[in-house]
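Project standup — Tuesday

K.O.: blocked on the structure for the chain from last sprint. Re-posting the sequence here as requested.
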Amino acid sequence: MKKKIIIIAQSMEIGGIERSAVGLINAIDSSKYDVDLLLFSRKGEFLPLVTEKCNVLPEIPQCATMLKSIKETLLSGHPFMAASRLISKIETDRKFRKSGYGSDALVFANLQSMWDKSVCLMPELKEEYDAVLGFMWPHHFAAGKIRAKKKIAWVHTDYTKAALNFEADRKIWNSFDYIVVVSDECGEAFKSVYPSLSKKVVTIENILSTEFVRAQAEEDAPSEMKTDAIKILTVGRFCYAKAFDNAARICKILLDRGMNIKWYALGYGTEEEKIKSLVLELGIEERFIFLGKRVNPYPFIKACDIYVQPSRYEGKAVTVREAQMLGKPVMITDFITARGLVRDGFDAVISPMATDRAADTLQMLIENGELRQRLSQNALVSDYSNSGYIERLFEIIEAGE
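H.V.: unblocked you, prediction finished:
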């Protein structure tokens, strides 16, 4: 008899974590496992990519409110959920606003507070599963509202950067049998915050399909990137962690040095208007181009000359792997998990975080065609699919049976 798995995620909106969820779902052996997918918001551009591999459950109205504004939550007929959200926002603002944390950390803190106060208002699923995979934090629903023989939760970020009530969060993590981290470095950061949970931590890197990425990249070349300039691309959410603001500053430095470049920013997010304002302030709007939200980023990656990930911190940057699958020379900044993501000098170069020094490294890469070629060739012959990690997940699910 096939085992029954449920995967929990917020939505299938465009994003690196969501793309890795697609990879995971498509890698699960449907002859051995029946898979339910519970999305707090049953929507997103990636949803059609998984509907044939799993049963997408109906939305739970109370869970759906967690991705709505407080006003929308109130108007949708959930006054208690709206009240808990409002209290959480007030408390988080009061506690962290002057703490010096970045905006992403405050989002984490508010999310935690929201779920701490709201999960008691949510219904429990009636069905019992062999395993629940909580793929996106916060994990309150998977921990407390689903009955499963095995509970597994994912960590996708550098936990040392989060502004959280760590003691309250520990109670949630304690509900899980295994805590999956997407890189060893991500795991070390998590264990430094929660040393008592170290024995539960296991590395399962993001499952990606090289064939899918390369096939999707064969769509028509984007007209927006037809230029004689060196084409630099960054893909991601416009948020503090991804540091698109630093990308704009690096672009400005290189332009001031007389370099013929165009930097393309593909994505969306809460800091988009802030970054656009910075680009206007720097006077580089003709050279720093916003491409918007795209379901298929791969033709844009294929069309670029250099892929740059200027992040302040990462768990495991999916877009870096995808750029390498397409044979692009890659530069990333030296965030904590960087050296577990690429091999410096072999399939990418790692630059210092400071914008002036990052500009030096990028200029060196632009001017050194031999190095770019070597990085590209090494990336093309490397296997970034991480397909072997799916067997590790099956072992975990089957353990103790």
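K.O.: great, moving the ticket to review. The mean pLDDT is 91. The domain at 3-60+123-207+386-398 is CATH 3.40.50.2000 (Rossmann fold).
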